[in-house]
């Protein structure tokens, strides 16, 4: 039981507010509101407070009336100006729909920017507001409608180039923290613009998971894939072959990284100098010649890397079968790297996601934002270049059909 000399919370609050330590946020809100009312009344009257303009003013001020305003910053006593003719009611005292929508927007934006639920709660409290964690979660769930519309939208037209990558994040699952994979599909449309066409969260990068993910893209309308670019994950490679049946390009950046892992640090410079020129040759034949020379030089000192090069030849040089102007954009998954960095910049702040849904929500909103930027920005590959690629494919398909009929 509290002693007689102890004050209640209500008494403490009253004492603080009556002294020189009044809540700065509450007083700031009151001052801004008062200034806004004076501005609105001046517009109605046709003259500023204290200004003498007898000719063209519409009416005159007639004192003030008090009104209590309950805000998230606390209770505020407003002095609403009165008019001799007509009436005035502050615009911000209309039903709270606008202010609540603004608060929702702020909290949603904070979440999309990578602020965790707990930190959003701290953020709004620092502003003199009170929003519980459950309320923040409810507000964030309002994004789900946009997320589902984005993830389930139909894919129209053809997507000749498909980039697939995965990123590991920490998610709470059944009372433990699990490392889960965010898988992202990024494609180049036949118009030359790039687009994030799909994303999901899975337990692990298994072949079954990748197969289900790719089939979901096909079900939404993914067609016309001529080249798939990814790292060398066996499950992903097998799923791409089974679902899409298109040529596969192994990411050259990942390949070089893997190769360097089989060499001493003092050998990295020489090894990179041998491998990088293979991917910057002027033709596929030149690239194969350089690859053969690199294997010859590495067989004695780095036989494991030499074997890697020989085994991966077709996979790391697949991009040479496409237009030369496309090569720099096809030989690696780098188009996804910037987007992955944006994800990391926000997920690093969150740390551990409460569930799969929250992770999907955040990544999806970033994907929507990226797609909007790409839609109004410059095309990733020139349209006329894509047109020639598609015409060549149609011609090649027709030729193959003729040959099959002739053989039959």
Describe the fold and architecture.
The chain has helices at residues 9-18, 24-45, 97-112, 117-126, 133-141, 144-152, 207-219, 234-243, 252-260, 268-275, 284-301, 303-316, 327-330, 334-350, 356-376, 383-407, and strands at residues 61-71, 74-83, 161-173, 176-188, 194-202, 227-230, 248-250, 352-353. It is an alpha/beta fold and 408 residues long. Strands 3, 4, 5, 6, 7 and 8 form a six-stranded mixed β-sheet that branches. It is elongated. It folds into three domains: 9-94, no CATH class; 98-142; 147-393.
Quick tags:
single chain, 408 residues, alpha/beta, 3 domains, two-stranded antiparallel ribbon, 8 strands, elongated
Topology:
Elements: H1 9-18, H2 24-45, E1 61-71, E2 74-83, H3 97-112, H4 117-126, H5 133-141, H6 144-152, E3 161-173, E4 176-188, E5 194-202, H7 207-219, E6 227-230, H8 234-243, E7 248-250, H9 252-260, H10 268-275, H11 284-301, H12 303-316, H13 327-330, H14 334-350, E8 352-353, H15 356-376, H16 383-407
Parallel strand pairs: 3-6, 3-8, 6-7
Antiparallel strand pairs: 1-2, 3-4, 4-5
């Amino acid at each position: 039981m509290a002693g007689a000399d102890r004050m209640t919370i209500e008494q403490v609050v009253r004492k603080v507010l009556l002294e020189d330590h009044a809540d700065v946020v509450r007083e700031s809100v009151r001052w801004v509101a008062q200034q806004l009312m004076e501005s609105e009344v001046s517009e109605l009257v046709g003259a500023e407070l204290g200004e003498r303009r007898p000719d063209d003013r519409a009416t005159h001020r007639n004192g003030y009336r008090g009104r209590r305003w309950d805000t998230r910053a606390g209770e505020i006593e407003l002095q609403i100006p009165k008019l001799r003719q007509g009436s005035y009611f502050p615009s911000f005292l209309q039903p709270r729909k606008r202010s609540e929508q603004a608060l929702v927007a702020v909290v949603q934006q904070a979440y999309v920017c990578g602020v965790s639920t707990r930190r959003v709660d701290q953020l709004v409290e620092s502003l003199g507001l009170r929003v519980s964690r459950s309320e923040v979660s409810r507000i964030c769930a309002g994004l789900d409608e946009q997320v589902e519309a984005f993830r389930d939208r139909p894919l129209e037209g053809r997507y000749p180039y498909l980039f697939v990558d995965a990123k590991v994040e920490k998610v709470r699952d059944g009372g433990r923290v699990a490392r889960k994979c965010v898988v992202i599909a990024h494609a180049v449309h036949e118009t030359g613009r790039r687009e994030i066409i799909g994303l999901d969260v899975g337990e692990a990068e298994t072949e079954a998971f990748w197969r289900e993910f790719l089939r979901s893209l096909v079900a939404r309308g993914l067609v016309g894939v001529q080249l798939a670019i990814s790292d060398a994950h066996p499950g992903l490679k097998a799923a791409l072959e089974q679902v899409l049946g298109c040529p596969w390009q192994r990411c050259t950046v990942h390949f070089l990284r893997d190769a360097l892992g089989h060499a001493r640090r003092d050998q990295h410079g020489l090894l990179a100098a041998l491998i990088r020129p293979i991917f910057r040759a002027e033709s596929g034949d030149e690239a194969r010649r350089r690859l053969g020379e690199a294997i010859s030089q590495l067989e004695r000192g780095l036989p494991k890397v030499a074997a890697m090069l020989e085994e991966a030849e077709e996979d790391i040089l697949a991009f040479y079968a496409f237009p030369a102007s496309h090569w720099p954009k096809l030989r690696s998954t780098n188009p996804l790297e910037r987007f992955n960095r944006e994800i990391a910049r926000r997920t690093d702040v969150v740390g551990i996601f409460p569930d799969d849904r929250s992770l999907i929500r955040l990544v999806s909103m970033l994907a929507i934002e990226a797609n909007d930027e790409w839609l109004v920005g410059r095309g990733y590959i020139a349209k006329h270049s894509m047109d020639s690629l598609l015409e060549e494919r149609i011609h090649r398909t027709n030729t193959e059909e003729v040959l099959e009929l002739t053989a039959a």
